[in-house]
Fold:
Amino acid sequence: MKKPLLTASAMMAALAMTLTACAEAPNAGSTSGSDTTAATTAQSTAQNTSGGGSDDFKACMVSDSGGFDDKSFNQTSYAGLQKAEKELGIQTGKVESADTKDFNTNIKSMIDAKCKIIVTVGFLLSDATVAAAKANPDVQFAIVDDNPASAKGLKNFKPLVFNTAESSFLAGYYAAASTKTGKVGTFGGMKIPTVTIFMDGFAQGVKYYNEQKSKSIQVLGWDVAKQDGQFVPEPKPFENIAGGKNTAQNLVSQGADILFPVAGPAGQGGLQVAKESGGKVSAIWVDTDGCVSAAEYCSSIPTSVYKGMDVAVFEAIKAAKEGTFSSEPYVGTLKNEGTGISPFHEFDSKVPAELKTELEQVKKDIIDGKIKVTSASAPK
Structure:
């Protein structure tokens, strides 16, 4: 049977994530044999581990508060740094944030560690990254998931962004075609653009399915017109797995049998609800192929909306090392395979051939501009 919607980028992302899960941490010690350690606070485990090849070029990364083992966007981005270390033979450093107040300190620790390029992961690091780029014009910066207006004109700042409304549209179409209850649900970690863009696309995919099939599948948890919906409660919503589980259970209690959590580690609460349902509920993962990054839940994950963050990070680092770094934003789309939906894995035999064909056609129509996917949060 034909593998559905498996792109080269998805295969690369899956391989990178597998390596991330299996590999040891980068070898401690820099070219001088010394280990550098960033400031540690009660809220942060900001350990800067240097290691890798013999090249004196050093690339570094600062995580969002989810950490490098979040089974989501931090982990996928970190796979790009690991790939650069291995394939380019460079030195690397990393620092993990436990709280938003760690961002400035953690970025400074990477500047002090003489990193040539610093990649920050997540929309929430935007202000701190822009400020650091302005204050350190000789250091190159890239940020995953934002293209801030405040960075306009900065030659040493590169946005790495993804139009996940397009790929989430496919996920919404799949969910609408597959629900048994006539209701699907989504929830976010926080109401920020890099979250709501997924929810916009998902809801529009359901709407398009309804229009094409004269159906009335309901989306719980997100209202595109009002730009409001269900989010994991504070504090630290992206890390609040219990809160994610409660939010998912609330949607299921309203009748949703397919969930679309867009909440980083907190989204694992949705996976738990799906797994505990005994097959009555499933959950579409985001940012990376969930059957790779969260393999223990694969039997509950029909597909995932991936972002090729590992590829984008690797290419930004490679360009910086080769002297071809550009401030032009990287925008991942369905067309360039920077985003998409991953294989159906254990659900493959359950997905009708007709639906697979329809998804391929919808994908083509989005790429060709026949289907317009819009979101206020789409990359500009």
In short: The CA atoms of residues 207 and 217 lie 8 Å apart.
